[in-house]
Amino acid sequence: MMARLRAAAIALIALVLVVPVLLPVVTGHRLIVVDGASMSPTFEIGDVLLTAAPTGDDLEVGRIVVVGEPGALYTHRVLEVDRDGADVRARLQGDANTVPDPGWVHQREVFAVYETHVAGLPAVLLRGAITPPGTVVLLAIAVVLLLIGAGGAALRPARRSRRSPQRADPQEEPVP
């Protein structure tokens, strides 16, 4: 029973570690952790956004977009759109900000488009799985579970089937 529980825990940890890596490759979705307060109260610091890949026509008034490059991303709402032929640009503003962002954002700068988010305790758990410290902790737990399983198997005596014949004690005299 413990072996099954240990195997299930290892499988769950593997799934939690692999899904965020495969998500962008398979579906185009990304998990992005909110690290600023400019979109409060819509998003709070630590919330995890589920975003989709940009489609090319993402700049619509009211839509929430993630702009920039990895390491320098920010998430704001489209406040105004200016269409000049094929060139589309937008002015953004964070929900907590009192003024729009300076300058305009072009469609090519959109990194992702907001779909939904996770907040509270589920966000804490999800963040723990998708950030480097959480990944290290999960990998350590998996290794410990594997070692406990391997150590337990090495220390446990071999089990016999009830049908296998009992070995005679070499010290015993045969019965006539």
Automatic annotation (TrEMBL):
Keyword RNA-binding: no
Cell compartments where the protein resides: Membrane
Family matches, as InterPro entries: LexA/Signal_pep-like_sf (IPR036286), Peptidase_S26 (IPR019533), Peptidase_S26B (IPR001733)
Transmembrane segments: 136-155
Keywords: Membrane, Transmembrane, Transmembrane helix
E.C. code: 3.4.21.89
NCBIfam families tied to this protein: sigpep_I_arch (TIGR02228)
This protein's name: Signal peptidase I
Organism from which the protein derives: Homoserinibacter gongjuensis
